[in-house]
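User: quick one, fold this
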Amino acid sequence: MRGVEVCGLTIDSPWLLEGDDPLLVNGVDVRPFVDAELDRRFPGRELREASDPAGLRDAWAALERAWAGTLDRVAAMPPGTTDERVEGEWSFAETLRHLVMATDTWLGRAVLERGFEEAYHPIGVAHTEFAEDGFDPAIFAESAPAYARVLEVRADRVAMVRDFLGSVTPAQLAEQRRNPWGPDYPETVLSCLHTILGEEWEHHRYAVRDLDVIERRASAG
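Assistant:
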């Protein structure tokens, strides 16, 4: 865009900070400012690119603290909040279910090299486009689980990552794996773990964003 008047513009993209191309506003690359502000708002996010076992454990612990605070916030909100959608996005419960699927994909399926049936929990939620490349959405048979059930499975997957990081070694982090969505593209155990951390922080941001909207709606009503 050149020579335009911008008022009330909202850009919300998980890929804003990826790649080498800048996002220029009047000649200034604003991506570093956005990244720094997100780190300020979400303490611990800055650890998501840790590259050694101790750093990864610290990164996961910070993430667990962030989610614990958000779960407490949701528990104090009115009944039905966990199933409320904002502008067609996933509800809070669906977000947690998607993160179950993401953990099953990048830890269970990729890092631990489990088969489909072994890797995936039926409570998971996947993007519809994942039906391509041999992904069978019928794996997710529990389409409307109770929120308590979601919390139980989510806690199990959080513990699964924590336990793996508790014993991982530098040599294991360097091991090669197949990308679960593109088998021709090599990954390492470390890059798979970085994908999990990235998914977690992005979806935490989405969840907080939508909870803010839900609270504003309630106060306005």
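User: anything notable?
Assistant: Helices lie at 31-41, 53-75, 92-111, 116-119, 147-167, 170-173, 189-220.
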